[in-house]
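# nightly structure sweep
# worker-07 picked up a monomer target from the shared queue
# config: single-sequence mode, recycle default, output format = structure tokens
# input follows
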Amino acid sequence: MTTQQQQLAPSIEELEEQEQRLTFDRFTYDDAWVLGSLMVELARERRLPVAIDIHRGGQQLFHAALPGSAPDNDAWIIRKRRVVERYGAASYLVGSRFRAKGTTFENSSRLDADTYAAHGGSFPIRLEQAGIIGAVTVSGLPQVEDHRLVVAALEKFLGRPAQAPGGSTD
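# output follows
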């Protein structure tokens, strides 16, 4: 990660706060369609070359590939989603926790890098009363930007804007 990316990267505390704040009371097939469509709209507005995926309970509920994305993005989606499923946390948060320990996910997790990728872009779909039931994932941008796109879409979908310092909303 470059110095500029490190300066823009959210802290572990911020990432954990996002996970606590961005939870669902339910998540239906229709919710997957609305969220996925919102993500496509955001990506198109920004002309982003991404692939978008929403999984719940092992089933793909939404997938879109926008101009400029590639089959490799689908492979990244799968690898990032596996990290969410295994660790119960956003893929970017998992990678950040390893970096905070002075190592990397690839060097210390003892998991196959062709199967798992703790890079930003996959975020858990967490029900308030049931825990993690799936993941929403984006691939095609630098990892912090993939993560930010997912978070922006979830904030808009859930109507829960980011918390500014001091607890007030933006």
